[in-house]
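TA notes. Do not distribute before section.
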Amino acid sequence: MAAFYLGTEVASKLKIETLKNVEMFPLLCMLYANSTSNDTADNFVNPYEKLELELNLIRYQNEGAYLGLALLVLFNKIIPKTLFTNNATLSLKTETLYTSLCQECKLSTTPAFSYILTCLLDFQGTYITETENFIVAVHDKIFDIISFYVGKQILDTVLQYGNWTFISQRVQFESINERHCDFSILIPREYERKYFDRIAVEITNNKYFNVFCVNQLQYDSFQHAFLKFVSENEMICKIMTENMWPLTLSSLLGYTQIVEFVMFKRKDKKSNLTEIKFDSCSD
């Protein structure tokens, strides 16, 4: 396979032991098939470091492409092409997302979406592929690396405006000190409030399935932090305890701390209502 894509000269430099440790070897062969670099064989020794180095160069040398990759992260690896072509009809949310992204990237101007698309298409077959209606990450493994590298640089925008599935599956608190995937984005304590603020938005919009699909809810330490946030927010606490879905979903998923919390709050509320009614009758 290496000889077919890379040529016999490069293939001869690759060690069998090296190739056995590269889980995305076929993909890398295709990515580097047209490379004119003299060190193509070195790309297989530590492919993740190599790709992160390339992304770092894009960050500082190709503003348009970097913004395009950031949008790929924010839209969770699938960007609708209407984003680049129908600027006049962009929603307020998308405009706000883009403004936030440019500010977080410390840009003095907001480049046109058409410019970003042009820059991004230069990496077709490497990082992205183009379909009739979408710009899509070329491969899940490549997107893992892009999201891990770029996501850490734009945490504010990710937490406020990013695709919820991306946040719920790829972002985890550093402070809970639990196991995580190699490409999970571990956020420091100073970002935890922003994470919970985003959860609050999902709760107020009655998107309970979004809330309870959060990957780190499986850990007691995160459930504890989540319930502390809920307890300190009267409105969120009221929604969580008065709607049937938080109790139903937490029961089905085995989130014991949340079940106990909701049951206690409901019982406490019922007791208070009984006392109020009794006092009224006494008067």
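Switch to the second chain here.
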Amino acid sequence: MVNIYDIETVEFPLGTPQLRLSVSHEEYKPGTGLKVPFTLYVERYSLSTILHAKNQGDGEPARYSLFTNKLEVPGTPSGGKVGLSINGDAGNADHRDGRRGGELELFVEDLPLKTASCIFLEASGGAGFQPSAKLEEEGRDGGKGGDGGSVKMIYSPFVSQASAVVEKFLADLYDAQKKWPSGFQEDAAALEKVLADASTGPHVPLPSFMRTKSGILKSKKVVVRDQVKKLSLALSGESHGSIFASLTQAIAVHGGNRGFGSHGSKSDGADGEPGKDGTQVVKSTAILTEIHDTDVCFAHPVQCRMLLDQVGFLYFVGSLKSRAQGVILLERLQQRLEPFLSKPAVEPKLWKAYRRNAKRLCIVENNPVSPSGSKHRRARGVVSNGFVVEQEHAWKETVYSQFMHT
């Protein structure tokens, strides 16, 4: 069963949902703590503090998975960081050893350096039990520190989309064969489209006359070339390397501290062992082979279908504004599903991850859970016996072409 909040948001299963799918343009704002286990596929997620949860058991570790187009950071707290934390519980008198850290999975489709610089992700092990320092004949043993958990971060620098447009524009501006302004219709239109995207435009430093196709083409070529050159330099400052470095430094998966045994009049208690550090993965969607080698299921077939339905609606509304919005959504969806367009000769880790997590993601083929069974079947897309999403050729050849040629 499924909870249907509105036409843009659904949750599975009924009663105790652990999966939320949404294509709403309204940002999702979590409460004061992390609900675990929980998986979210949302287009916008707002984070204004560090949200905490604890891994309290020895079985399946507590997990929080967030997959979003844009991570909103409305304002940083006094410490300057926002983020997610699932540390292991500390040991106690009944259970001396600290618990292992939890599991965090994040996919952020458009991530500026400014946002990456204030993120903190933590899945450290709990501290081992430290007996009280009271005098006893036999000292009590300290507990072992819990092992660190797992943090996996997949990101797409928002500049990767803008940079491609800007670099082509700049190259054309230096091409003596292209006539100004008639030969720059496509370049100006492409830049205008990038700036119309709410996830990209506000971060791009340009004067107002450079934000519309007409404004660009009415300006002098030398002025436009100067602005595009400055923009190219500004975007290169937010390089993949800078974002990668910020994210790598933002992750903590330390092993828990050991507990020291207490002293006794006859013998001292034994000290525990410190926990082992956990694992961290940071990868960019700009490198396709790295994405194939991850086990993070960053695209959900039902949510992708919901986005595609939005595209169809915007197309049939018919206004220029709605069609422009539809093109942006469609290209976002196409970029998100690019890793699934071809099947490598050797089955990648990503394919196996979808099969392994099919039940958790409610995409089991024999028991589809969806507000619309037919929609789910169309969106599911399988590779052999797996449950891997792949882009449908139908919408690529029809809806996309309608948008681009209307």
